[in-house]
Amino acid sequence: MALRRSILLVDDNVPLRSTLADVLEDEGVETQQAGRGDEAIGLIRQVRFDLLVLDLNLPDMTGVGLYSAVYEKLPGVGCIFMTAEATENLIEQALRLKPLELLRKPFKVGLFRELVRRAIAAN
User: Fold this and answer.
1) pLDDT by residue (tens digit) across 83-99?
2) Which domain holds residue 111?
3) Among 96, 101, 98, 97, residue whose Cα is nearest residue 114
């Protein structure tokens, strides 16, 4: 029996986050959701995630700050960043962390699904 994969979705846009969670759960992936960085950090302390999907602009921190804060606790965990309106500086900071992908919103759900499939297969 294959291990069930677990992904953390962090975005303050609740409808988008719920849609992405539904897509992942249809793929057999377990999801946890957070709307703020501090919520995400709390979840990361409790659950071992196989992949992080992080918005670059969160109410309490950036996705870059969040990923940097938890990376040492999750060595090797993959990350997909998402953004609708990030500064070029923030995008450059994100790309320096070598994410699996940086998606610009709006993006096609099929593209998201395929990226997650590849990330999980590589893990």
Assistant:
1) 999 999 999 999 999 99
2) 6-122
3) 101
How many domains is the chain partitioned into structurally? 1
In a domain, 10, yes or no: yes
Q: Report the CATH number that the domain containing residue 73 is assigned in CATH.
A: 3.40.50.2300
How far apart (Å, rounded) are the C-alpha atoms in residues 100 and 84?
Answer: 17
How many Å separate Cα 61 from the centre of its chain?
14
In the Cβ-directed half-sphere of 49, how many Cα atoms lie within 13 Å?
A: 29
Cα separation, 103 vs 47, whole angstroms: 25
Of 29, 36, 12, 6, the closest CA to residue 84 belongs to 12
Cα distances from 30 to residues 4, 21, 33, 64, 93, in angstroms, run: 7, 8, 10, 23, 29
Q: Evaluate the omega torsion of the peptide bond into residue 75 and state whether it is cis, within 30 degrees of 0.
A: no
Residue 1 lies in a domain: no
pLDDT digits over 50-60, tens only? 999 999 999 99
